[in-house]
Amino acid sequence: MRESELATEHRDFRALVRDFVEREIVPRHDAWERDGLVDRDVWRSAGKLGLLGMDVPQEYGGGGVRDFRYQVIISEEIMRVGATGVGFALHNDVVAPYFLALATEEQKRRWLPGFCSGELISAIAMTEPDAGSDLQALRTTAHRDGDDYVLDGAKTFITNGIHADLVIVVARTEAHRGARGLSLLVVERGMPGFERGRKLEKIGMAAQDTAELFFDRVRVPAANLLGRPGRAFLHLADHLPQERLGIAAYAVAAAETAFEQTLAYCRNRTAFGQPIGAFQHVRFELAEMATELDVTRTYVDRAVAEHNAGRLDAVDAAKAKWWATDVQRRVLDRCVQLHGGYGYMRETPVARAFVDNRVHPIYGGTNEIMKEVIGRSLGV
Known about the structure:
Elements: H1 8-35, H2 41-48, H3 68-80, H4 88-102, H5 105-117, E1 122-125, E2 141-145, E3 148-159, E4 166-172, E5 182-188, E6 194-199, E7 210-221, E8 225-226, H6 232-268, E9 270-271, E10 274-275, H7 280-308, H8 314-338, H9 349-356, H10 367-377
Parallel strand pairs: 1-4
Antiparallel strand pairs: 2-3, 3-7, 4-5, 5-8, 6-7, 9-10
């Protein structure tokens, strides 16, 4: 974020996060990519520093600060070093709001201390093999049986799926009611019938934990119902804007990092006796990217401020997510091109960023869905 958007405490927090990232993540990330998974102990280390559950009240072990800038700073610092394997953003930006807004007092006391300490890693399971953005097509079901729900079904593309100790599962609890028949159930590690499938192999983000989850007659206590039965669609709609804003913030930070690396390369790489940045075509490419990034940064920073003020709606969040991730996609493609052959080498940061971040226009709702959200708001 721009310095004008930050106070002294945010700058101090950035220094804390940067030190943590350089000390705990950078030296280990290559090994995590080879292993295909980050070590769980990095979560506990983050918890000790207060980097998890920043907006969770202190009585449950959190930071007690409702200010999305802190969460953005964490994502920016992780993105600055290309550490795409660390799933803190899903935990902090996406899952935490559901617990804060919907959990009962008993649920908060049971789950949030471990959530904030890093002992309990969280995930949310919406996507299925045959249902992505169309939540009304979900086939995972849960029927009430005494004091339990009996859960059956499968989910895929679940971030933090292998490590997750708490999974918010979207399931159909009322047949033939479409979006009104969905509920949120929190499935806990070790429940009989809850199994992890493959850790999925993606074209990028090799260290990131993305998995299949399977539920075979899992008995989930009714005490693990999150929010109101049959209201999952509305609960999801309430919390998607923050998720999409988080993706936008991550995307612009990734694009800015790649641009800075490319600018340095163009200043130092020579061809025909001069830096390649001295050629008019390259200068124009750099000028266009710099302008697009400035415009995008201005919009995303404003969206963060609007969110903190409680004014960010679903349409503006969709605009931020679509625009920032589309700009990111174009910038990364151009950065690879300007690096020439080196841009195609995995050892080059922009090459890794190119494949690692291609998912941003896809997850959190595809950019085509974002345009649909925006278009409907225009009455067309």
